[in-house]
Specification:
seven-stranded antiparallel sheet; 12 helices; disordered N terminus; elongated; alpha+beta
């Protein structure tokens, strides 16, 4: 998290290396291990502490040390210009703290002898205590924050059997761009890594729910996991290995992947339709008027990151944004909601001249859909029927909704007239068509 109210820029070095002042660190705690992702610490895990520290910061090109009143609490490490200030200059949140390091003391008579670094995913904070004892006390309490996840990871046996993919990858660590070979395992939405394939306890994991993009460099067998705080660089031994890892990672996405085979309506569908019915069923042109491209793209990313815990906020997305998001989901399916092997039968059934015979034929064809496709189509038709009930306000009749959704649910290369008529029937007579199923 960027420091509040104060623009701080830290470089990797303050221009001072080594020096004649030797620091006795034998009595100090060992700094915590390097971690690569955020995880919340329980407030009871944090020992509150406060006191003055010198902090290195300032604007780019003018780095300097400034004395700050620092307070470690369940909120994180806050630093203030003065002890009496209420508003902090900045905050290092607990879940951002990855590593503690001892720094080389300053040269000659430099007063900044008792230095340490607090590493986060986005930057490194440089501090100096006023004495060796003072530094030891700060390192003791801060080490609790950086070692908590080690205890959590070691608390239970790792579930190798349910991993999607395992294997060696070369990973950059911490603030260093040096690659280290790690045994990696993809379990759920976490990419765990181990010091070797003989270790049973992971060193740490990358939380894939905060990954906003995955990029690749085929020539280097390298791919990158982009998060708001940092980019994780991972290199495979071969192109085939990299492609296998990318396939496994991208299979976690919602957009662009096939419908799940569990027979349940996908979470993204229920999420969007509920929002539309609560905030947009009476909005003119719902499902016809497009939303903001930027907002839709941002929502797509959030859905791919963690659709299960996602909550849509009307303060940050309009009904048109969410309606467009839902249509985008269906358009991005590798195979349409109504697959190519069923679509012709439905189109032909819808064009049967006798009305009742047409409905029976549509019903008979619909039940041949795969379970998830059937459940989702049934759910969507009921939703669109409810939206059409407010057509006097939203101007979206059954006819208009059918025009919008027939190319979304069917393949674009089929019988367009039959597809449109089928969509009309599915919405208007959904209760009868799906009544027995």
């Amino acid at each position: 998290m960027a420091a509040a109210k104060e623009y701080i820029h830290d470089d990797g070095s303050d221009g001072e290396h080594g020096g004649s002042d030797d620091l006795d660190s034998s009595h100090l705690p060992s700094p915590g291990p390097t971690f690569d992702v955020d995880e919340e610490l329980a407030p009871e895990d944090v020992q509150e502490y406060q006191g003055f520290l010198w902090k290195k910061g300032g604007k780019k090109g003018t780095w300097d040390w400034a004395r700050r009143w620092c307070v470690l609490s369940s909120k994180g490490l806050c630093y203030f210009k003065q002890e009496t200030d209420v508003q902090p200059c900045g905050l290092v949140q607990l879940h951002e703290m990855l590593e503690l390091k001892l720094s080389q003391p300053g040269k000659g008579a430099s007063p900044r002898k008792f230095r340490f670094e607090l590493v986060t995913a986005g930057r490194t904070y440089y501090f100096s205590a006023e004495s060796s004892q003072d530094m030891g006390a700060w390192l003791n309490v801060l080490a609790t924050c950086t070692t908590s996840r080690t205890r959590q990871l070691a608390s239970k046996k790792f579930d190798f059997e349910n991993c999607t993919i395992t294997g060696f990858l070369h990973k950059t660590g911490g603030s260093s761009k040096t690659y280290h070979k790690r045994w990696c395992a993809l379990l759920g939405r976490k990419l765990y890594y181990f010091l070797s394939n003989t270790h049973e306890t992971p060193k740490d994991f990358i939380d894939l729910t905060i990954v906003s993009a995955i990029t690749e460099e085929e020539q280097a067998n390298t791919f990158h996991l982009v998060t708001p705080k940092r980019t994780y660089d991972l290199r495979a031994d071969t192109l085939a290995d990299m492609q296998a890892w990318l396939a496994a990672l991208r299979a976690l996405n919602v957009f662009g992947n096939a419908l799940p085979a569990d027979g349940a309506v996908p979470r993204v569908v229920t999420l969007c339709t509920t929002f539309v019915e609560q905030h947009g069923a009476d909005v003119e042109g719902i499902y016809r008027i497009p939303g903001s491209v930027a907002t839709i793209n941002a929502l797509c990313t959030r859905v791919d990151q963690d659709v299960e815990s996602l909550r849509l906020d009307p303060e940050h997305a309009t009904a048109h944004d969410v309606a467009s998001l839902l249509k985008q989901y269906f358009r991005d399916l590798p195979e349409p909601l109504i697959p190519a092997h069923i679509a012709p039968r439905l189109a032909q059934a819808a064009l049967v001249p006798d009305h009742n015979a047409s409905l029976y034929a549509v019903q008979a064809a619909a039940v041949e859909l795969p379970p998830t496709n059937f459940a989702t189509l049934k759910y969507m038709c009921a939703h669109l029927s409810r939206v059409s009930e407010q057509s006097e306000t939203n101007r979206m009749s059954v006819e208009n909704l059918a025009v919008v959704f027939s190319p979304t649910f069917f393949s674009l290369c089929g019988d367009m007239r039959g597809n449109l008529q089928c969509m009309r029937l599915l919405i208007q007579y959904h209760e009868w068509i799906f009544a027995s199923y």
